Structure formats: C-alpha cells, structure tokens
Amino acid sequence: xxxxxxPLSLDQIKQRLLAYPLPxxxxxxxxxxxxxxxxxxxxxxxxxxxxxxxxxxxxxENQPHRTSPEFLEPFSLNFQKGASILLVxxxxxxxxxxxxxxxxxxxxQVQTFVFKGKADHVLFPEIKTCVAWPWKAVKEEESHQxxxxxxxxxxxxxxxxxxxxxxxxxxxxxxxxQNRFSKDPNRDRFGDLLPKRKFGNTGIEMTMLxxxxxHIARMSEKEAERTIETALEGGIRFFDNAESYGNGLxxxxxxxxxxxxxxxxxxxxxxxxxxxxxxxxxxxxGSLKRMNTDFxxxxxxxxxxxxxxVDYRINNGVLDVFLEAQQSGKVxxxxxxxxxxxxxxxxxxxxxxxxxxxxxxxxxxxxxxxxFINNVMPQxxxxxxxxxxxxTLANGGxxxxxxxxxxxxxxxxxxxxxxxxxxLYFSWSLPVSVLVTGADDAKMxxxxxxxxxxxxxxxxxKRLELVEKVADFDGQFVEYYKV
Length: 483
Known about the structure:
Elements: E1 5-7, H1 10-19, E2 27-32, H2 36-46, E3 50-56, E4 70-71, E5 84-92, H3 96-103, E6 109-117, E7 121-122, E8 130-132, H4 134-137, H5 139-163, H6 175-181, E9 187-188, E10 191-192, E11 196-198, E12 205-207, E13 209-211, H7 221-233, E14 238-239, H8 249-257, H9 259-262, E15 267-272, H10 277-290, E16 296-301, H11 307-315, H12 318-328, E17 331-337, H13 342-351, E18 357-361, H14 372-375, H15 377-383, E19 386-390, H16 420-428, E20 434-437, H17 442-454, H18 460-469, H19 475-478
Parallel strand pairs: 1-8, 2-3, 2-5, 5-6, 6-7, 13-14, 13-20, 14-15, 15-16, 16-17, 17-18, 18-19, 19-20
Antiparallel strand pairs: 3-4, 9-10, 11-12
Helix pairs in contact: 5-18, 7-8, 7-17, 10-12, 11-13
C-alpha cells in the first residue's frame, strides 16, 4: 500500500522560499525532471543563471527504478572554476542523485538544496511523508496544453514564411501607398529599410520592426528626437502612438520631430480608448492636431478589455466613428488592440469584419497563459488581418517586473532563461506583420534594429523549446497585464 502524501500548494512553497535564507551563489544547477521547477523558482529568487542536468533514478512515487542514478545526456559545466553553485532537487532520500551530480562539480564550491529530504539546505524538513507537488497535480492538463501548443506552433511555419518578403519585394495594389512605401522595396530617400512583411489585406508592405510611442512620452525631449531619428536611420518606417500616451505628449513629439520632415515615409498609427462616439471623434481630431498630420495610416480601438467592453463601445457608436473616419480619408486603415483578455479580441472579430490590423501580446510565454497566440492569431490569419506584436518582453515581466515599463525582483525570464535575442526572434518567427518595440532610449532601439537586421527564423523545434523553457514561471507575475 502506498504511503499517504502531504499536499503542498504553490503558495505554501512560495511563502516558505521567500522566508528561507538562501545562500549567495553564482549559479543554480537543477536536477531534472523532479528538480526542474524547484530550481527555476530558486534561481528566480536569487536572480542567478540556471543550468539543468538530466538524471534518472526514481519514478514519480520516489521508488528507484534503476540500480543507481544515471545521466541521461553528457554533462559538463562550462563555468568559471571555483564559482559557488547551489545544486537543487525536489527530494533527496538517499542522496545518491545529488552525490552523482556533485561528483561532476569537483572544481566548484557546491551546496545542496532540496524541498524535502536530506541536503545542506532543506525547505520543508518537518515533512517525512511523500509530497503531492502542485505541479504534478496539473501534469495531465499541462500535457494537453503542450500538445495544443505544438499543434498550433507547428502550423505557423509556412504562414510566417509567406509573410516575409523576398529581397526585392513585390508590387502592391494601392498606388498611393506604393509610392509611399514600396517604390523601391528596399530603400527610400533616407536609406536602406529593414526587411518588410505583408500587412494583412491592405496590399502594403511594412518594416518588421516598429517604434513604440508610449516610451517616447517618458523620455526627455532631446532623447525622444534622437530616438525617432535613430528609428529612421535604422530603417524603421512604422510608428506607433496613442492619444493616451503621456496625456498626448507622445503624439506632440511625433508632431515636432517626425511629421514635419518625414511624413512621406512614416506609417503612423494612433489609438483611442474612447467608449462612446463623441469621445472617439474628439480623440481623432486631437491626435491629428498633435501629430501635425491630415490623416492617420492606422487608427485603433484601443485597450479592449473584455467582451462586454467591446459590446459597449460598438453599441455606443465607436465603430461607426471609425468607419466614417476611414470613408472620409482621415484614416486609411482601422484596427483594434488590447492586452487584458483574448476573449475581447475574439468578440471584436465576431462583431466586425471591417478590421485591417490587430495589436496584441506575442511572446514566448503567452502560449502558456491565457494565450493570444493560440486563441486569436489563427483567426487573424484566416481573416487576413495584420497581426501586430507588442509586449514581446511582457512589458518588463520578462525582467521580473509587475508594473508597466518596470524591471523588478520577481523571477526573471531574461536573462535567467532566455536572451533578449531569443525572446524577439520567437515573436518574429510567428506570422506577425510588425513587432512594436518600446525602447527606453536611442541606444536600446539600436540594439533592436541590429537584431532585426540579423534575424533568422527559428524552426519549430526551437520555438517549442523556448515556450517550454519558460512554462513553469507564474503567469500572473510574468504577464501581469492579463486578467
């Protein structure tokens, strides 16, 4: 008869970890499979890099099913000799697995840490029974979700390739737009452009990287001008904004530094949070005035937050204002955006077939938590609506932040698990027309431009690897902006 198990919740484990005096180390090494999630949590709290080693000895009931533990793949550590290491597993009964891995780390200062059992550090020393770990309780559901992720992400490879234009480009249907954006598909009067992608059903082509407007309002005026100039010099031609950014300051800075000299090459979008027709009209006129332009290339119904929110705005005439603005020529294309709830996006797609673009979170963590990629992107592709990626670094969430624009002290995806390059390349490897980046300054923008120039699409296996590497992070922390 199997021994009864002590149930532990994720919250209990987190609280105990937060109170535990973790040792200061240079590196965390986790023993997979059982120690993979504990090591992820510990590395996140310490803010240290994590390496996982695969060892097989016990089954899920902690019973040995080998005579001794064995490495499932070659293990050697390329890390500075003499560094301090915390070796983490979920459970240690005899210590044989910890001992095997520790024997390979003789050139380092190693301490061992387990959640239950025998080690230098033990999180729950009082527990003597087996434990019902919370991540194992949902293993079956996670397996189903992983299967669905694989199925969907696998289907994207051909779609993404079809959106990426060959060098030399192609003609577009709208001659006015062709003159602005595709007369020479690789250059304009300011120099070489970044690689371009198809932009939904509009017939135009757009640079794969766009400048986010929210950060423009947070910079000094001088840095905002420098960042806009850097975008243009680097081949960016897509410029994002919203009337709400800095209470109109971001739009005014486009009106000062972008439209006076560069309107002929700049594709400019703005957004309104209006929930009624009168406010939407006022926001449009204000955006045009602040940005010193007669028209917007793209206008968004912004920050839709729920199906009810979508219904309210449509019932109060917001969509009618958009269609009128498009008919009048004040707006060329219309779309919608949001980051709270993918169900709001699905409702908008259900209610209207007039949209040309949709802006939403697209990042390597999204498929694991209330996913826009899994739920919304298939419909965008089917309807030939241009997907615009935002929150590719979770608006600070990949850096442990839990508020807009900020880094923080929560477990970090970057740099502990993914690099910035891997994070952006994941998003670009999906069928997005443009990735909008929020750069803190011109220097940061240059780094993103360089990544765009070097971009090579990740294959299916690599995309899935990145999704699964981050799957064990807490969704509410990483993508705190979702409901």
